[in-house]
Amino acid sequence: MTKIALITGGSRGLGKDMALRLAQTGCNVIITYQSQLEQAHDVVSQICETGQKAVALKLDVGEIKSFDDFVSKLQALLLQELETEKIDFLINNAGIGATIPIAQVTEEDFDRLVNIHFKGVFFLTQKLLPHVNDGGRIINISSGTTRFANPGYSVYASAKSAIETFTRYLAKEVGVRGITANVVAPGAIETDFNNATVRSNPQIKNLIASNTALGRVGQAEDIGGIIAFLCSPDAKWINGQRIEASGGVFL
Hints:
Blueprint (H helix, E strand, L loop, with lengths): L3 E4 L5 H12 L3 E6 L3 H13 L4 E5 L8 H15 L5 E6 L14 H22 L3 E10 L12 H21 L5 E7 L6 H4 L5 H9 L10 H10 L11 E4 L6
Parallel strand pairs: 1-2, 1-4, 2-3, 4-5, 5-6, 6-7
Helix pairs in contact: 1-8, 4-5
């Protein structure tokens, strides 16, 4: 039976590549988007051209009160469009970037980053657990900045560290259902994330590349294949792990 993946933040960047790679493996894909409707439709079209099914749903992962409505829409979509009731893979990818020195962080900044990167992931996962098939996979996206420190990333990285701890507890609690839970932690990736900080700044890009064992910054396609592998039968015994995909930065 065809597997179904739900990827939050799948309209661009890493999420887009994850969606396309999973479609290439034969998955049907549901992506969420917050505001980029046109880009989301483009991803859906690209997936449909491969022969797989794809749909897009609007979701703001920082608005926890909207999750019940989102789950109801997801249930209806699964039945109407994909002729099933549950998903197999949940990839919590959606996020935002912000470079703010500790002395300048406001409570509003703090709450926004924590709501999106930790609280939202926690409660969305909680809401979706009954709708994930036994034997499924949950993959949470973290960051290389939980291992090394970049000034300005204190709140972002702290929220991602919380996600890494949450994932281990999640793996422990859902293992009875044969569901695995893992973390993928990308390093610096050349996308539009955080106002395209890496892509738009040659000096930053060169600095990161010079401190990376493979001699370059990451590309979106460096991450999608790892997600596809973790959703494959070959990865069934990987559980509760943090997998850093950074090309060997700051070793």
